[in-house]
Amino acid sequence: MRIVADENIPLAEAFFGEHGELVRLPGREMSREQVRDADILLVRSVTRVDAELLAGSRVRFVGTATIGCDHVDQQWLADQGIGFASAPGCNADSVGDYVISTLLLFGEQDGVALTDRVVGIVGAGNVGGRLVERLRALGIRCLICDPPRAEQEGGEGFTDLDSLIAQADVVSIHTPLIRDGDHPTQHLLGERHIEALRTDQILISAGRGDCVDSRALKARLARDPDLRVVLDVWENEPDIDEALYRQVAIATPHIAGYSLDGKLRGTEMLYQAMSRHFGLPLRKRLGQLKPENWLRRIAVSRRAPPQEALLLCARTCYDVRRDALLFERYRRQYGMEKGFDLMRREYPTRREFSTLRVELKHSAGAVREVLESAGFAIRAPRKS
Hints:
Keywords: Cytoplasm, NAD, Oxidoreductase, Pyridoxine biosynthesis
Function: Catalyzes the oxidation of erythronate-4-phosphate to 3-hydroxy-2-oxo-4-phosphonooxybutanoate.
Domain D-isomer specific 2-hydroxyacid dehydrogenase NAD-binding: 110-256
Enzyme class: oxidoreductase
Oligomer: single chain
CATH class of the largest domain: Alpha Beta
Main location: cytoplasm
């Protein structure tokens, strides 16, 4: 078989190489000519997969190593008898690390503890739902707006978007991009909701760029520059609005879910789905191939203040400021559009909180509880 894969899918050779020739290509530049003779197509979110790309090809299976699927015409694939798989939940903890890092940063700036802020989660699917679990484990009060889930599960435990904005100190958006139907999310946060944000609120968008009306947001920030906005996703990526870029507090190029661990899970999930589709045996497992974290463990005293220990461990694993500074360097050197994609292509290896083992002396009850809730692996002391 011939396999065409996005160049940013890690371990593609290790998982798929035994099944045929594997060709890597830049995802944004894939063309009909390049995929015409492929049997399997593996993409990420930047490749539009539809009839324009695949009509007349011999592709029999398409996999996207992402949670979101709005870039794939699934109905057309089904009509052609082409198998399809995505990777739901693969990078949920990576996005959660991004949000927690952001909350810790602003908490440090403001002298506010994590538990002193109410966090509103808009979209509680694989990513948002997992984030709610982690934040609540940390003792943070969360509000959830997810109309499709509320319809299926009953309204208890959910709130509407207007109420969430009125009550939350942080509004964090994690919805997929849905353009029509009963619950469209394109410009879900439109002018009315953007105008309703308080200046002391924090807005985080790490789902899909089109879920926030960037024009309305730019106008609001021009009037109220103290409103803090964190954008990882943007309308018109990679050619994003440079004026809006300069207005936000933290800007990153769609990398919230770009941990190595999340991407590796996505590759394994596609390998498993492809194997099932073609009736092939599963010979590879991520545990056999996953590289070891270069920072294997860190020791923390039981006398450490729990929030200080959390800040130390979180910053050791991931600091959102580093990505914002790196994006600015790429933008200055290469321009916005090229720099956006080049940073994603050359993104430094980033590991999730769960890959760092924290060695605690004695029981370290409060410290242990906080670090485990945040997602760190705890190494218990040896018994004498």
